[in-house]
Amino acid sequence: MEKLTILRMFACLPLFGLLLPDAATLITGSFNNLSPVRIYIECFLLLFIVLCTLRIAQISKAQNAASTEL
After folding, report:
1. Which of left, alpha, beta for 65 (phi over 0: left; psi -120 to 50: alpha)?
2. Partner of 35 at 20 to 30 A CA spacing, among 19, 29, 45, 53?
3. Tens digit of pLDDT for each residue in 35-57?
4. What predicted TM-score, i.e. pTM, was given to this entire model?
5. Which 3-state string (H, E, C) describes the chain?
């Protein structure tokens, strides 16, 4: 589970690196400068982080259930 947590943390780094310039572009109002590839990558990274978070929650829940049964 520790490896999954570390993987999730390192998936956040490129996401923040992509979101900050895109947010600045959206604030300035020049929407036509956004590349669709960047948007796809950002969506994929968000989905990946959500899936990792759900898996971590599932593992934690299973460990808590196993410890209460003892």
Report:
1. alpha
2. 53
3. 888 889 889 989 998 998 899 88
4. 0.72
5. CHHHHHHHHHHHHHHHHHHHHHHHHHHHCCHHHCCHHHHHHHHHHHHHHHHHHHHHHHHHHHHHHHHHHC
pLDDT score at 13: 86
Confirm if 60 and 5 have CB atoms less than 8 A apart. Answer: no
Phi, psi dihedrals of residue 34, rounded to the nearest 5°: -80, 130
Structure tokens at 52: 């990792």
Query: Which residues make Cβ contacts (< 8 Å) with residue 22, sequence separation at least 6?
Result: 34, 38, 39, 42
CA angle 61, 65, 69 (to 5 degrees): 170
